[in-house]
Amino acid sequence: MSRLLLMGVLILGSVITGIGIAADGEKLFAFYCAQCHGSEGKGDGPNVTGDFPVDPRDFTETAEMNKLSNADIRNVIIDGGPIADKSPMMPPWGKTLNDEEVDALVQHLRKLCNCTGKAD
Ligand code: HEC
């Protein structure tokens, strides 16, 4: 096999696997976020008890979510609540999730709020 053809096969192969493992915002949300933010994002997950100092954001509140840009959301996901003067009850995920996964989550939150948010 010529070297060029081999390279072509390798590139095609990685494109196909790339699609296969594309981050799925809905699944990531169910796995990492729903216990606090609720499976439908309403801020009513099973972890939230009476002694929670603040309620997790209800992502279906369009007006509130429209105040945030995608960059604002991304920063809070990566660095946790305190980066935006919010509660440390919102954990940082930067060591758990890669960029692609964080972006997929931002897109998922935009579906939940049915809003596009502030421009970055
Ligand atoms: C341990 C519970 C918990 C988990 C798990 C959690 N959050 Fe949060 N989250 C919170 C709380 C509590 C707040 C509200 C903090 C505040 O208002 O001071 C919050 C706030 C946020 C905000 C900020 C909204 C705003 O108004 O600025 C975003 C965005 C967010 N969470 C996204 C996520 C995503 C995405 C995940 C999953 C990767 C996640 N959270 C997992 C508890 C959690």
Secondary structure layout plus pairing:
Layout: H1 3-20, H2 25-37, H3 62-65, H4 70-79, H5 99-113
Heme C binds next to helix 2 and helix 4.
Number of helices: 5
Computed over alpha carbons, the radius of gyration is 18 Å
In CATH, the topology is named: Cytochrome Bc1 Complex, Chain D, domain 2
Count of DSSP strands:
0
- The CATH class is identified as Mainly Alpha
Overall form: elongated
The CA-CA distance between the termini, in Å, is: 48 Å
Q: Overall pLDDT, averaged? A: 90
H/E series:
HHHHH
Count of the separate structural domains: 1
Helix content: 40-55%
The proportion of residues in beta strands is under 5%
Label the structural class.
mainly alpha
Largest sheet: none
Which stretches are low in confidence, meaning pLDDT under 50 for 5 or more residues running? none
